[in-house]
Structures
1.
Amino acid sequence: QSALTQPASVSGSPGQSITISCTGTSSDVGRYNLVSWYQLHSGKAPKFMIYEGSQRPSGVSDRFSASKSGNTASLTISGLQAEDEADYYCCSYAGNNVYVFGTGTKVTVL
Amino acid sequence: QVQLQESGPGLVKASQTLSLTCTVSGGSISTGGYYWSWIRQLPGKGLEWIGYIYFTGSTYYNPSLKSRVSISVDTSYNQFSLRLNSVTAADTAVYYCARDVDADAAFDIWGQGTMVTVSS
């Protein structure tokens, strides 16, 4: 399995909305509604942000939303805040009890 | 509240075996529906799923690492462990343990991660 493709970086000003794409294939993102998203701050444990494509775990801000179209999943951050500056990774089930992560996106708040 | 903590050597010599343990606290590793994973982040690169184990001992591995990886569970100590054989500098990474809900690529709880450097 090849890593899912994400943009290396995305930036936005406070209050704006940004979208991070996660492109896979018809064997992973396109086939299963099992895409999750994670926020990584340096030196901290990764944070679980989205599961099953668009579901938010308890405690995750509703400024974070996600969707999927074809082989591409997307994470949208609305009302961008300084604390959102982090690395974001998508992950998809790829069949046969195998998972694949995305290449990661660095979000910068200008 | 369930917490995970990785432990093990931070330095491993090339060609030897990397061994890490993840201790689960605040809950039982034998609770049904949870799968216990190892994930790593290579320097300057993305996350890579290594494999997972169920409390019954069933394991699944990343095909790219399968020949060198072994994950085991010790329910009496509420721990699961990773062994990666024949390591090279390319295995230098931050290693995380994580809990996966229903094997649905939903890693809801992660350890802090532990840096492992492979030296020549």
2.
Amino acid sequence: GESVGLHLPTLSVQEGDNSIINCAYSNSASDYFIWYKQESGKGPQFIIDIRSNMDKRQGQRVTVLLNKTVKHLSLQIAATQPGDSAVYFCAEDTGFQKLVFGTGTRLLVSP
Amino acid sequence: GAVVSQHPSRVICKSGTSVKIECRSLDFQATTMFWYRQFPKQSLMLMATSNEGSKATYEQGVEKDKFLINHASLTLSTLTVASAHPEDSSFYICSARDRGLVSNEKLFFGSGTQLSVL
């Protein structure tokens, strides 16, 4: 879903489940995308990135999928853990050496 | 990995006070640093791009006379909120790009500064 006002979309999962967080980006010319994790009161932490010449990239427990046709990104987290609870942002490189961040999704992982 | 140090982490001040926030790259040189602002439960919004030795580039709607940026060395950029007012209360975050790399693959963020103006 999209953020409305002050409410972040929230995804609630059980520990051990797989999580999928989605993001729509705006600029079809963007060629580089990054997922960040942000814990309360801290700066964003790099998770995984992907270039526009790829449609999938895997890291440790995380996978990013890119669908350029519909300008959509997703972040898949396998075997989600309580420590994964945070707000997740996608960001696109607009080509001017600066990032535009998406609206964010709060992930809540229950033990 | 590369570290970006941001200070202070939290500041509470009276209305009308000017507040300076520092962003340092500890183990790399950063020709470019970025300053973001984040309101509660919202995304990061780019305020300005800070380039070493030249004037900062501000995003549309950001007052350059209110948010003064100085990037005097390859390891330090400062953001000064001039005559802060309660509406300037926010979480300010800096990031620094490793000079040796050509893309944002290596963009490192500070830990943020929570500014509360009374």
